[in-house]
Amino acid sequence: MSRYRGPRLRLCRRLGDLPGLTRKTSKKQTPPGQHGNKNKKPSEYAVRLEEKQKLKFNYGISEKQLSRYVKTAKKVQGSTGYVLLQLLEMRLDNTIFRLGMAPTIPAARQLVNHGHVFINNKTVSIASYQCKPGDTITIKQQESSRNLVTKFLMFPGLANVPSHLELDSNTLVGKVNGIIEREWVALQLNELLVVEYYSRK
User: Fold this and answer.
1) Rounded to whole angstroms, how far apart are CA atoms 49 and 43?
2) Rounded to two decimals, what is the model's pTM?
């Protein structure tokens, strides 16, 4: 997968707060670039594109993956935008991040890729794995794995664990009790604009 490896704070200055991408905050308030200070009114396309970019960079997915998630969300009954957010929030890497076991989504993805995470007592090394209600997430019994996650839990990326998740910080066991509700999504965006962006393509 083609991951974004560029400056993260530059993205945050352009798109706003991206809690899944970085915990740092920029001292500069203006958008990046020579023309960052100009108050030019963005076009309708630019507004939709910006919302789509927020999703893409916050969850660390490629254009192809996001397009696939939108197609899947359209097939499910209900609000396409809400279903899209549910699909992205229930990814394994994001679930680990929301439990506080990793400071950012890229850090959570690294934990998964390196085999530190078990789902229902089976090793899962695919970050895009869709967590389901009833799943139990545990950390490898190896001391180095547990020390790493314990260190991350002392300084979680977000203050609160969402209502659909449950964490026992002593045993490092997380449980998925349901599907995330809209108000618990940490990213500030209008998901309907993302759906509109893809419906015009």
Assistant:
1) 10
2) 0.85
